[in-house]
C-alpha cells in the first residue's frame, strides 16, 4: 500500500510495469479517444494544450472515465481534470 | 442585373461501382451492377438482405482515426467525394479567395448510423443518459457541409438541402443560383448518404419501397422492366465544384460542362406515393427547360429518377412524354440506378457526375437488367437498355424526386466559349 502511494501520489510511473491498472486504463482511453501516441501521454500532458483535444473531446474523455471506472464525476470537479496525471490521481482516489 | 454563367470545374464520387469518379464512370459505361449481400450488419431477418454498398470501404484509408471517429459515414463519403472534386478543380493550387467559396451539400437523412447506435446504447442501459458529446454534431445533416468547409477553410455560404431523394439536386440548383446571382464565386456541391443500417433497411422495407429479390441481387434494380419490384438501397456520395465562368477562365481551370438551368416543383399529392398523372414531374421539367431557355428537342439525354418502383417509373415516363411530345423518341433515357442502386439524398450528386461524364465522353450509360418489356411503357422510347450507347450529347437533364413530393431537374450543357 505504501509503495502504491509513493508511486502514484504525486509522482507518475515512467514504465508500464510500474503502472497501476487504473493508470494503464486511463492511458489506453486517452490514446484511443484522442488518437495520440503512447509516448505523448505523460503525466504533465494537458488534454487541450498538448494532446489536441477540443472541448467536446474532454467531455467525451470524462464520460469514458466515468463508464470505465463506474464513477460519477461532477462538472465542477471535471473542470479540474486537465492533465493525464490529474485524471489518474482523481480516479485512483474515487474509483470503486 | 445580368446573371453569371456557371460551369463545372471539378468532379468526385465514391459509389458502389467505384471509389473515384473515373472508377465510377468505368462501371457505368460497362453496365456493372453494384449490388450484393449486405455486409454492414446482420440482415438475415430482414425482408431485403442485399444493397449497393461502397466496396471494401475502410475509413482508415482516408482519415486518421480521431478524425474519422467524429464523422458519421455519410459525412465521410461527403468529405471523400468533395476532396476529389476540389483536387480535380485545383482550387487550393489556384489560391482562390476562400471567403468566396461556399459548400452547399445534400443529404436526405443525415447520420442515421450515429443516431441508431446512440439509441441502441441508451436502450441497453438503465435509463441513465450517457449520450456522447459527438452524437449531435455527427448526426445532424449539415455536419457534412460543415466538415467540408472546416477541412478546406471555405468561408462562403454553407448549408445542407434536405428533400429526401431530391436533396443533392436541390443542393446543385442552389449552388447554381448562388453563383449566377454573384453571392459566391465557387461552390462545392453534391450530396451523400449512408443508410444501409438496420433502421434504414427496416424502415424502407416497411414502406414496401425496396426490392425483395434476395435470390438475385445483381438484377434486382431493373427500372422500366415489367417485373421491377422496388428500389435497391445504395450509399456513397457525388461532388461537383461549380464556379463562375469568368472566375474559372481567369484561373485557367478545365471546364467539364455548363449548368444552364434548374427546375423545382412539388407533387402536392402524397407523402410517399408519386402522383400517377405525373403532373408535378411535368411541371419540374417544364420549369427546368424554361430556366435554361431551351426547347424539348434540344435535349439529348435524360438521366431519370427511375428507381425501379412499379409506380414511380411509369409516372416519370408519362411526364416525359407529356413534356417532350414527339421529341421524346429522339431522347436517350437511362436510369443509372439500375447499376448504383438508389443513393437517396446522394442520388442527385452521383447522377450529375454521370450526366456530365456522358457529355464529356459522348456515351450514354445504360439502364441494365432489362429482361421483359413493360406493356404500359411506350416501346418506341430509347431506354438505353443493357448496353451503353455512343451519342454526341449537347444537353443532358438529370431528374430526381423525393418522398414528400419534391421534384428537381438540373440541365447540363456541353461547354462552349
UniProtKB/TrEMBL annotation, chain B:
<keyword id="KW-0444">Lipid biosynthesis</keyword>
<protein>
    <recommendedName>
        <fullName>3-oxoacyl-[acyl-carrier-protein] synthase 2</fullName>
        <ecNumber>2.3.1.179</ecNumber>
    </recommendedName>
</protein>
<dbReference type="InterPro" id="IPR014030">
    <property type="entry name" value="Ketoacyl_synth_N"/>
</dbReference>
<dbReference type="InterPro" id="IPR016039">
    <property type="entry name" value="Thiolase-like"/>
</dbReference>
<feature type="domain" description="Ketosynthase family 3 (KS3)">
    <location>
        <begin position="3"/>
        <end position="414"/>
    </location>
</feature>
<keyword id="KW-0443">Lipid metabolism</keyword>
<dbReference type="GO" id="GO:0004315">
    <property type="term" value="F:3-oxoacyl-[acyl-carrier-protein] synthase activity"/>
</dbReference>
<keyword id="KW-0276">Fatty acid metabolism</keyword>
<comment type="pathway">
    <text>Lipid metabolism; fatty acid biosynthesis.</text>
</comment>
<dbReference type="InterPro" id="IPR017568">
    <property type="entry name" value="3-oxoacyl-ACP_synth-2"/>
</dbReference>
<dbReference type="InterPro" id="IPR014031">
    <property type="entry name" value="Ketoacyl_synth_C"/>
</dbReference>
<dbReference type="Pfam" id="PF02801">
    <property type="entry name" value="Ketoacyl-synt_C"/>
</dbReference>
<dbReference type="InterPro" id="IPR020841">
    <property type="entry name" value="PKS_Beta-ketoAc_synthase_dom"/>
</dbReference>
<dbReference type="InterPro" id="IPR018201">
    <property type="entry name" value="Ketoacyl_synth_AS"/>
</dbReference>
<keyword id="KW-0275">Fatty acid biosynthesis</keyword>
<comment type="similarity">
    <text>Belongs to the thiolase-like superfamily. Beta-ketoacyl-ACP synthases family.</text>
</comment>
<dbReference type="Pfam" id="PF00109">
    <property type="entry name" value="ketoacyl-synt"/>
</dbReference>
<dbReference type="InterPro" id="IPR000794">
    <property type="entry name" value="Beta-ketoacyl_synthase"/>
</dbReference>
<comment type="function">
    <text>Involved in the type II fatty acid elongation cycle. Catalyzes the elongation of a wide range of acyl-ACP by the addition of two carbons from malonyl-ACP to an acyl acceptor. Can efficiently catalyze the conversion of palmitoleoyl-ACP (cis-hexadec-9-enoyl-ACP) to cis-vaccenoyl-ACP (cis-octadec-11-enoyl-ACP), an essential step in the thermal regulation of fatty acid composition.</text>
</comment>
<keyword id="KW-0808">Transferase</keyword>
<keyword id="KW-0012">Acyltransferase</keyword>
